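not sure who needs this but someone in the group chat was asking about GAG-pre-integrase domain-containing protein from Phytophthora fragariae so here u go. i didnt clean anything up, its just raw.
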Amino acid sequence: MGAPGSDAQALFVNVMKNSLQQWHERLGHVIFQDLLRMVNNNLANGVELANKKITFCMACAEGKQSRNAQPTQDTSDSAPTDELGTVICMDLKVDLKPDRNGNRYVLTIVDHASNYNQVFLLHTKNETFDKLQMSSSGSTTSRSRPYVPMAGESS
């Protein structure tokens, strides 16, 4: 072993000059201007800079990125399908009282290609097939919404 106290002195003797980029990374990607202010005002002991050149930090850029750009056109994964989605709504726990017209069920049909929705009120679940046929004959497979005449409008 060396002279007494030499180990403690060795910790302070070996000070290396590092670049601004290296100190930026070591201190958790602190802002370059803040790091320069700390060095210039002697707020950080033992920090000596070999060069003060500010470089581009890819890790900081990736950390600030919120999300990738959205595709401008539909891809095969995100494109809507030409299928119809259907849901029959009913109350399973309690016998649902019919409305004033005697309807107990609600059939919802969604054309995923055009995002066109249709809602039918049903007396029984057996009416579902007829409503689906009626809906599919009037639906389109294009991505534009089908024309629905307004009340009182002649077609």
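also The helical segments are 6-13, 20-26, 32-40, 58-64, 128-138. if thats useful
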